[in-house]
Amino acid sequence: MSDDFLIPSPSRRRFMGATAAAVAAASLSQLAFSQTLQGITEVKSAPNGDKTAIRPLRVHVPEAQLVDLRRRIKATRWPDKETVNDDSQGVPLAMMQEVARHWSTDYDWRRCEAKLNALPNYVTEIDGLDIHFIHVRSKHENAMPLIVTHGWPGSVIEQFKIIDPLTNPTAYGASASDAFHLVIPSLPGYGFSARPTEVGWGPERTARAWVVLMKRLGYDKFAAQGGDLGGIVANVMAKQAPPELLGIHVNFPATIPPEIAKALQAGSPPPANLGDDEKHAYEQLASAAKSRRAYALEQGTRPQTLYGLSDSPIALASWLLDHGDGYIQPAAALTSAVYGRDVNGESAGAMTRDDVLDDITLYWLTNTGISAARFYWESHFNFLAAADVSVPAAVSVFPRENYQAPRSWTERAYHDLIYYNRPDKGGHFAAWEQPQLFAQEVRAGLRPLRQS
Fold first, then answer.
1. In a 3-state reduction of DSSP, which class is residue 237?
2. pTM for this predicted structure
């Protein structure tokens, strides 16, 4: 594959940049902002009323909503303390009361709002739904277009710390040839994307929408990246194999072979013929099935029942924080960040307590607790079952992920595996925890696509 297929030509890039700037300028100069999403965002209307136009978005939460949030937190009716001395019954009372204290007294949403508004935010309607996205173009020639998708319980806030390392690699000791143009969308029903009012917005429809989005931005060739649900969307994009997709990088690989999935479902011990890394992965998956999937089961079967996510900030926060393994993985980094110290030797890395509260507050202000959960209900396959894709794929297996996907399984699931690596630190929320290392992995993983 020649370089001509990897990135737009210089003349085309200039045309696209000028066109995008002209559209944005026309929208900004001619029409007033319209209030959306409970009045917390302002979106420019297109001059001709075309909702598929790329429309700038700004965030401004009325102070009354922040006052109400603090009031609701302080009015929480607390349950009794758990009857154990660990987190085996759920998020400990002391932890949630500390979250409540900081959230209602010291936390400053305006700081996060300023970060959001410092980035180029847009909305465009795709298949009848407004999709929000951040679009940051690199200053470097030949930057590769890359769409990066967040997961649950995350949002575009997860990606803040990787934007500059990926778009401006020379500032971090990397080569200009590794630069990316970044598109970071909010999943349907998450953040500033609209909440679907009809069934069907699962991974498959989202994957198709991402192709429409990238083409609408003028990218006729691009790569995709994702972790957690974002990894699922990237895998589905690869399975659909649109001609515009160069390849994918995932840090939440889907690699479980059918025979392993069958044994796990039966509750059987590890098959005798497994290698050491395969046996370790099997044991991790078996443990996860027993204690870490309650939230996913509820969201996948009865998401509408979770009314507390819309009514109580503390109910929302505890639900988003609980992965059934608060001191282990993948929630360990979240737990350590909330406490502001390493818990059981688990580091939060670059993730802070306010990072976590930024994310939770975004869910609260946009009232997307249930609509985000519904994405699981809309998903009709095992997220970790072997991806079975032939599009070029890069895989990073972080040590504190749900399971460490063995290379042997990964090669069976991704038939054109162009990169496989096991970094020495980081976990499920790798972009949050280890943004520099994560950026290195994305650069290295997708570098072969530039050379093909």
1. helix
2. 0.91
